[in-house]
Design goal:
Structural class: mainly alpha
Number of strands: 0
Largest sheet: none
Number of helices: 5
Strand content: under 5%
Shape: elongated
């Protein structure tokens, strides 16, 4: 197994690990706030659940980039590029970093924003639509990072 192949695997792993950690962190924070609201007003369960789930998307994005990466390097349904050169492995690692790093940071901040939005719903359930826009704005940057990682990983030539 070459260093290039191991670097590519590291990129795939970081995409899942870091974006997943951010999502777990964000969903956890928002879940604590949501539980408090539901304890006081069980009728708000659906609204606060939606807000709690928003930071979870970054983990899904990281997983998607990991699947694409593993497929590109031949670990899923192909012959693994075990002799990949170091520069290709570094390129794949670099291509995975946008969703890994932005996923980690944006999920955390989306969780904090979701907590604030859950507070809005607790005070006035009719403001749910407006409250949902705040964490959704943070999602924009996760989507941009996802697109960059997918485009980059998909366009790096990998010789098997």
């Amino acid at each position: 197994m070459s260093i290039g192949f191991m670097l590519a695997l590291l990129g795939a792993a970081l995409a899942t690990i870091l974006a997943g950690m951010g999502s777990a962190w964000g969903v956890g924070m928002a879940g604590q706030a949501a539980a408090g609201v539901v304890a006081e007003d069980p009728d708000q369960f659906a609204k606060v659940l939606i807000l709690q789930l928003l930071p979870g998307t970054q983990g899904i994005y990281g997983l998607l980039v990991t699947f694409i990466t593993l497929s590109r390097i031949g670990l899923l349904g192909g012959s693994a590029a075990l002799t990949m050169d170091t520069s290709t492995g570094l390129a794949i690692l670099a291509a995975c970093l946008p969703i890994a790093l932005v996923g980690l940071v944006s999920a955390y901040h989306q969780g904090k924003t979701a907590v604030a939005s859950i507070g809005v719903v607790a005070k006035d359930p009719n403001q749910f639509g407006k409250a949902m826009l705040f964490p959704a704005m943070v999602e924009t940057y996760a989507i941009l990072a996802l697109l960059i990682s997918i485009l980059a990983v998909s366009n790096i030539p990998v010789a098997a």
